[in-house]
Predict the structure.
Amino acid sequence: MNILVLHQYYLGKDDSGGSRWNQFARYWAERGHQVTVLAGMVHYATGRKAPAYKGRFVVREEDGPGVTVYRCHVSESYNRSFLGRFWAYLSFAFSSTLAGMFRAGKADVIVATSPPLTVAVTMWLLSLWHGCRAVFEVRDLWPESAVDTGVLKSRPLIYLSYRLEELAYRRASWINVLTPAFEQALVERKGVPRRRISMIPNGADLDLMSPGPKDNAVRRRLGLNGHFVVSYFGAHGRANRLGQLLDVAERIRTTHPDVRFLLVGDGMEKPHLQADAARRGLDNVVFHDGVPKEQVADFINASDVCTAVLMRNDTFRTVYPNKVFDYMSCKRPIIVAIDGVARRLVEGAGAGLFAEPEDPDSFIRALDALRGDRGRMEQMGQAGYRHAAAHYDRRALAEKYLALLERLAGGGERRLAAEDHPPLARFA
């Protein structure tokens, strides 16, 4: 089977970030399938384009045996403004459509993963071109998350975004969501039939993310020996609201002299966070650039506690941050400052404690509860690992996804017609 994956943020070699689709593609190739990926040239967190891509429209790469990647043009206006980012999305939609028509081979099934919503246009056009069915994956509730965080303010662009969302749901043969809250939102608010939705979530890469000794080379190199290390891994963006960790660090600088905060990753807000930490004199905060996925486990293992934080926002009550599964895989206890399904995941697994988002006092209480009880920390780490291995093993999830694609490619599910969907809610 020839599987065409449309993913603007598919990781390149040595890139940091979520590697779900890299691993899925390699697993499917191991099973004898040919996987072709249409990916962008600009990293989602840094907004930077590698020198090898500059001045190129499409670049062919290999991501292991059986996985061919076409890096497609993305405008470098990505990080200038939201309008610049939207233009970057459109540039990828155009370049990936042409690559999917004239560079990629014949596809038996297409998977498009969002955000951005503009991939829906490419998905639709390529499904017509190849005469095949398509899966649209919802990794975030767009455009709600962009509107709720204040990133998307233009009424015309908001209107256009909701129309793109409608196109995606109407033209996909199947929709996959990453959390039960996404499924509920699509059924109850978007009018998507439940019978056309599956939930194959983010998961734990137990092959790559594995527990290891805390006193490792990362600790020594960063001068963290003898300290209680609280680590965050991932994007440093507006929605992450990492300033709340700086607030905690400032409050406990004298009362908890052994605690160090390690922030690993990149994003548009990182320079502002670094400047803010310097202004406050926060010598208990250590910033580190994003690292390739193969190195993340060493950094997690160097931590005593790991954390996932987002701004206080109802939209973020629906998300499972992928970093939570990485923490579980390495047997590290978690402070999750995200309410909703992420909180239920961590507390239900017995893997950590909840702190109210953007509430430093709540975070400090959770930190003190763990810092003073090493036995409890060990129990939470073990419980998280067992839960991840039992329910979120990425290899098992890849197999489940493959079964879905094989069924669609084989005609087991008919293509959704427009009449299968009631009119979607109008938000403009």
